[in-house]
Amino acid sequence: MWIKVSILILLLAVISSLFAGFYFLIHDESKTGRLVKSLTLRVSLTVMIIFLLIYGYYTGEIAPSSPWLHAFG
After folding, report:
1. 2-14 pLDDT per residue, tens
2. Whole-Å CA distances, 11 to 5, 30, 48
3. What's the pLDDT tens digit per position in 12-56?
4. Which pLDDT belongs to residue 16?
5. Torsion of CA 57, 61, 62, 67, to 10 degrees
6. Which of 5, 24, 44, 64 gives 35 a disulfide partner, CB atoms 3.0 to 4.6 angstroms apart?
């Protein structure tokens, strides 16, 4: 259960970083590097989400449960 909560928190952090990057793009002058830092944070959070998804799948905490997987079995 902690993996799912962690993924949700990281997704919210990615979305907030996305909006922060948009704000920095509109309002900042080109002198600051806040836009690049926001992009770096967003990419690293996304990599963490991918690793958590892979870990959760291999440990069995996250399993595919699509209805079409069990329709013809």
Report:
1. 999 999 999 999 9
2. 10, 28, 10
3. 999 999 999 999 888 887 777 888 899 999 999 999 999 999 999
4. 96
5. 120
6. 24
- CA 14, distance to chain mean position in Å, is 5
Q: Are 10 and 49 in contact (CB under 8 A)?
A: yes
Residue 52 contacts by C-beta under 8 Å, 6 or more apart in sequence?
Answer: 3, 6, 7, 10
C-alpha pair distances (Å), 1 with each of 4, 21, 37, 50, 61: 5, 30, 31, 16, 7
